[in-house]
Amino acid sequence: MALAVLSGCTGDPDTPAPSATAPAASPGISLDMPPASFGPSPPEPTPSGKLSISAAGYGPFRIGMTQQEITDAGLVTGLTPNGCGRAGGFTGAPETDVWGGELVRVRVTDPTVTTTGNVAIGATVDDVRAAYPSGRAVTGTGGVTGWLVVDGTGALLLELAGGTVSALTAGDATTVEKVFTGERGC
Known about the structure:
The chain is an alpha+beta fold. It contains three helices and eleven strands; from the N terminus they run E-E-E-H-E-E-E-E-H-E-E-E-E-H. The strands form two sheets. It has a seven-stranded antiparallel sheet. Strands 3-2-1-7 form a four-stranded mixed sheet, with no helix packed on it. Strand 10 and strand 11 form a beta hairpin.
């Protein structure tokens, strides 16, 4: 990562250079999570400490975060503008998708991750339909199937292979479906 440092030259020797100290964080503000303006928070870790996934996101990944916020928080590195990437240090090494400068999709394949409806990788189609009766079947690239649960502008996609859940995706409803059906990259 390149870092540029400006020395505050003004051309006027009587003008003091700006202070190099960073402002102190406001009391009561945590820099660990983005502000609540990103909509509903993703689910909190379960009592076992495992992270859950919902249409709002996965762990610290909130749908709608800016690419800069994701990078500054150290959640993902090496993203190109409007690009895809993998996050390290999180269960399932989630795949992320950024478009228009915002996080629009997070996908995990780790069998320890569950949805807020308590569905995990390996669950059956019957389990999925029981937990999410308002969902609908979708067909992805190559004939892969999934169960799409739309929640406002967000969605949770439970990808199916051989009659069981093989991946869990959270994000912007349109993006989640378009990526799954091959109409969009990542």
